Amino acid sequence: MNEFEIDKREVRRAFSKAASTYDAAAVMQREVCIRMLEKLDVVKLRPQRLLDVGSGTGWGTRQLGERYPHADIVALDIAIGMLQAARGTSGWWKKLFAGKRESYLCADVEALPLAAQSVDMVWSNLAVQWCNDLPATFVELHRVIKTDGLLMFSTFGPDTLRELRVAFNGVDGYNHVNRFADMHDIGDMLVAAGFAAPVMEMEKLTLTYNDVKSVMQDLRSIGAHNATAGRAPGMMGKARWAHIVQNYETLRRGGKLPATFEIVYGHAWKADPKVTQDGRAIIRTNFKL
After folding, report:
1. Residue ranges per domain, the chain?
2. Other C-beta atoms within 10 Å of 246: how many?
3. Which pLDDT belongs to residue 286?
4. Whole-prediction pTM value?
5. Fewest Cβ atoms closer than 10 Å to its Cβ: which of 7, 40, 198, 209?
6. pLDDT tens digits for 220-229?
7. CATH code matching the domain that covers 8-158+179-205+263-269, chosen among 3.40.366.10, 3.40.50.150, 3.40.190.10, 1.20.1330.10
8. Looking at residue 168, what is its pLDDT?
9. CA 4 – CA 132 distance, rounded (Å)
């Protein structure tokens, strides 16, 4: 068993449960979304059909709707509770943007129920870190994007929640923090999937808290808790919790406890397929001789 494999049923359950508390707690997620939207200022593409992967409660979807008022937008999320929350807040949006065509799709990005070359742009804010096979996910995204279409996404890098890793060190033998891919490896995955000249960027954002309980509560409120196969079963005992608090307190600076998030941004285009002089397609593979 791969101890870092994501339990998708647990992800669905956690995010559906967190739908009612997500918006109030997702400060960092919204900030990353705003920064991604700013990156679109230099993009000339005007998509006719746009896929929002990991759309959550729909805040980012609505921002995309304002930017591209004539686009059909498909809001996709693995958690039905998130989509229900998004639909519940979309009434006023429809009134503001009459004629807006949006749809909601509950599905896993690793197996998209969409036709090949069916969308002009895929947008995904902090969602693909929940994929078990990220290289295959990029292949799947490449499949549904039209030629000359754009993939733009953000995800977490390896330094995310490093303080929490320190806090759980020596507590037990279980996993307590998800594993995240390195920015350079993600760039290689995009090239292997067929995307052209990916652009990768990274920055670190740090949230501060008064106590460890507040850190954990924020993660629960957005549904982002440990969903790996190697997670600890059952509830946490008092002794283990005291050990975690003691470890985390060693990181207190200026009266606050930090929680670091390494944010990886990426975008890439689906270019025309390369062909040989006699018209045969050149297919990229991951095999080495």
Report:
1. 8-158+179-205+263-269
2. 11
3. 40
4. 0.87
5. 7
6. 888 776 666 5
7. 3.40.50.150
8. 86
9. 8
